[in-house]
Amino acid sequence: MGIDPSTNMCKLAKKKFLRIENKFFNEVNSDYLLKKYGSFDIIIANNVLAHNPNIKEIILSIKKILSNEGHIIVELQNSSKLLNNALLDMIYHEHFFYFDKLSFLNLLGLNNFRTTKFKYTKMHGGSFRVYAKHSKNQSKIILNKKIKMKIKKFQDEAKKKNLQVKEFFRKNRNKKIFIYGAAAKTTVFINYYKITKKLVKYVIDDTVLKQNKYIPNTKIKIMKERVITKEKPDYIIIGAWNYYNYIKKKLKYIKSWNGKIITFFPYYRVN
Hints:
The longest helix has 25 residues, at 147-171. The relative contact order is 0.10. This protein has helices at residues 7-15, 27-37, 55-65, 79-84, 101-110, 147-171, 184-192, 227-231, 244-250, and strands spanning 2-3, 20-21, 40-46, 66-77, 113-121, 127-134, 177-180, 202-204, 221-223, 235-238, 260-263, 269-270. The protein is an alpha/beta fold.
């Protein structure tokens, strides 16, 4: 079963006959879950822990409802990759925490969890997945001595990225440009670089709930994909670049009018 605070997402899940509780996951609701369902053998939290300001409460609530021999499986964006590649568009209001391997394993160890497996993944420009279970002992904190160096690398790479974006729009100010994917990272990208409707005509997204709305703080409208064949843009910037390969394959038809696909993250490329 699942738990999620989003009412509309829970309604969609129930239509698919999935068992779900429309609640925030916190200490109070973990007591509710334990009373109603008992303890859980596997708890999965993919790309959600960094969205909650009360991280210790979440970890302890997970610990409360996890069975004695149970496992938690957690996936998080890797802040080391974010810093090394200057993934500016991944820094936004929904993320209260940015973990690398060391900081997250410290958090688990301090709350009496033992890591049983760790692996890196490619999601969001670089993530990691941790498997852990209860431990009787509390681990010691290991300090990250390279953090200052990583922040300096982020600053240097961000300057390069800024020049790439500005130069692209300067050279192509008379071209028709769309962005594909009305993701949170797209909103950050557009607002950070002060991209207006004069530079980008539309943002394209397949999500019905987003269509015919606007990117926050702009006049750039979110449209259905069919507007691409009608307007025939010169360039489509992939905003949801974590799905680059899927979107690139989907948009291969724009080559029929010599349209090109662009990404700036995690690195600059033109196809």
